[in-house]
Specification:
- By secondary structure, this protein is mainly α.
- It contains 14 helices and two strands.
- It has a single domain, classed as Farnesyl Diphosphate Synthase (Orthogonal Bundle).
- Helix 4 (67-85) packs antiparallel against helix 6, helix 10 (201-227) runs antiparallel to helix 13 (248-275) and helix 13 (248-275) runs antiparallel to helix 14.
- It is globular, with a radius of gyration of 18 Å.
- The chain has a two-stranded antiparallel sheet with strand order 1-2.
- It has helices at 2-19, 30-40, 47-58, 67-85, 101-105, 107-126, 132-146, 151-160, 168-193, 201-227, 230-233, 239-242, 248-275, 280-290, and strands at 94-95, 98-99.
- The longest helix has 28 residues, at 248-275.
- Strand 1 (94-95) and strand 2 form a beta hairpin.
């Protein structure tokens, strides 16, 4: 685990260093760039870009070449967080221990910052110094993961869930779209960055891993919303109960959630054995996410 922590920190540092280079130009619309950088550089675990780099490495590629793709995925993720916090969505005041974007820059600028980060994500990927076939496949994978049949569709179902009770299959489908699809895209994009064809078994194995950790991640998130404090999480907690939303905790109880996390983490690690030689880091990452405290 010590080696894993060292590798994770090195990977996160590479990502942070590259992210620092974006949106630094001086423009009349400087406030917009400041808002974009405010959220993009607010820290976090950087799990999605880490997955891009480490799946590229596991598939035999050079993770340095995949850095632009990883940054593009993180820009997309950041856009979703900015919009998720808006008053018309979750209306949250804190994100990663700091005031949310709209609290700092106002709703209009925050909305535009999210919009601009979304488009910048695709610009960053499509401008990557990789073969055209690779950047096209990566951009297409990201687009599929975040539209009406992916993250945005999941957010719509999540909002509708505040007015009704979801069954376990319904909540699993919603969370797969809202959270799982972007995790899946990160894993697949990493494999594609290594020059692997979209129909290669490595892609299928990456999808199986991503789907398993995606479900475990959301179940753990639901648990932390009940058991953790706002200080620990760096954002409000307990809002699921207040809004009477169906969650894994409300449907399965805490013990049932623990069982699901353990099972899905095992499935994720087993999926890696099918097609990859280097699996130690990604296996440890699955364990790390299963036990995370925030």
């Amino acid at each position: 685990m010590k080696q894993f922590q060292s590798e994770l920190q090195q990977c996160q540092a590479q990502i942070e260093q590259r992210l620092e280079t974006y949106f630094c130009t001086s423009l009349p619309q400087q406030k917009l760039l400041e808002a974009m950088r405010y959220s993009l550089l607010a820290g976090g675990k950087r799990i999605r870009p880490v997955l891009v780099l480490k799946f590229c490495e596991a598939a035999g590629g050079d993770p340095q070449q995949a850095l632009p793709l990883a940054c593009g995925v993180e820009m997309l993720h950041t856009y979703s967080l900015i919009h998720d916090d808006l008053p018309c969505m979750d209306n949250d005041d804190l994100r990663r221990g700091r005031p949310t974007n709209h609290k700092m820059f106002g709703e209009c600028t925050a909305t535009l910052a999210g919009d601009a980060l979304q488009t910048a994500a695709f610009q960053t990927i499509l401008s990557a110094p990789l073969p055209a076939s690779v950047v096209r496949a990566a951009a297409l994978e990201l687009a599929r993961s975040v539209g009406a049949e992916g993250m945005c569709g999941g957010q719509q179902l999540d909002m509708e869930g505040e007015q009704k009770t979801f069954s376990l299959p319904q909540i699993t489908h919603m969370n797969h779209l809202k959270t799982g699809c972007l995790l899946r895209a990160a894993c697949v994009i990493g494999v594609l960055a290594a020059g692997v064809a979209a129909d290669d078994p490595k892609v299928s194995a990456a999808i199986a891993y991503a789907d398993a950790i995606g479900l475990a991640f959301q179940v753990r998130d639901d648990m932390l919303n009940v058991t953790a404090t706002a200080v620990e999480m760096g954002k409000p907690v307990g809002n699921d109960i207040q809004s009477h939303k169906s969650t894994y905790v409300s449907l399965l109880g805490l013990d049932g959630c623990v069982d699901v996390i353990q099972q899905k983490t095992l499935e994720a690690k087993e999926a890696l054995q099918i097609s990859f030689q280097q699996t130690e880091f990604l296996s440890c990452l699955a364990d790390y996410l299963a036990k995370r405290k925030k």
